[in-house]
Amino acid sequence: MQRFGTLSFGHYGPLGGGRTLTAGDSMRQAIDLAQGMDDLGVNGTYFRVHHFARQQSSPMPLLAAIAARTERIEVGTGVIDMRYENPLYLAEEAAALDLISDGRLALGVSRGSPETVVRGYEAFGYTGSEDPRGADIAREHFEKFLRAVEGEGLAERDSSSPFGGGTGAQRVEPHSPGLRSRIWWGAGNSESAAWAGHVGVNLMSSTLLTEASGEPFDELQAQQIETFRTAWHEAGHPGEPRVSVSRSIFPITTAEDQMYFGGRQDGDQIGVIDGMRSTFGKTYAAAPDVLVGQLLEDAAIRSADTLMLTIPSQLGVEFNLRIIDSFATHVAPALGWVSTRA
User: Is 19 exposed, middle or buried (0-12, 13-18, 19+ CB in 10 A)?
Assistant: First the structure.
């Protein structure tokens, strides 16, 4: 692990005790937190995307605002649900954001996670799926998105246009030449990881795998990563791809930390999600020295270059920044972390 960042679900709504976190509060706090993380030298800030829910659903404005307020931190998603996306419009937005941020975008996309509504992507106008979870729509959209990012001409020029005319196929604009190398696929199983390696995009793997073989979660995930890298090299792609994993990790250094996270240490869990038997990763919550020992034993963290910490964004900027600072100070260096301020 050379890099770490945060993965926020961006929840907002009632907090209890008569308090409410509004959507605007959530986004403004995310910007402030990212700025504080950038000052600490944290490598990235990433956001889950969920439609029809009180969570982040339109990440581009938020990421652009963060990019404008920071200098080094990577801005990204983990992940955008491609079932809901116009692939050419997403390519335009992603290129614009990549240019604004000077190449600091890490755009994670995938089929998406289970929804709060039934086939919500159909309400967005994307119908005709033959898959009960819309995976065929997601792959179709992604393939067209990737062609657009690569600069392929996708619409015939109008020779009689008063705005330039000409002949031949026109690419979407703007175009960011390095963006292709900053696209990630969120894989939930080894099959999708192998597909991502074959296509030649980076890999995001979360705290949930839609596989359950009885093996420990970290070992199952490490196997997924190895499958991805093997497919990458067999496809003949140059260089080394990036790989991220996410974890719930809480260094306990104060009484307040103990109140929130003490007793949260648990093991892997097996359950059914989206109709598939799945393995859920455990939560790590302990004193920093204990965490170091535990995380060094995590096979997937050892294999990945980037670790994403899931954060309780509803607890506010000050609390989350202290948790992140504790991890950066007492845990991350022992795992191989390199600060952007180094």
Answer: exposed
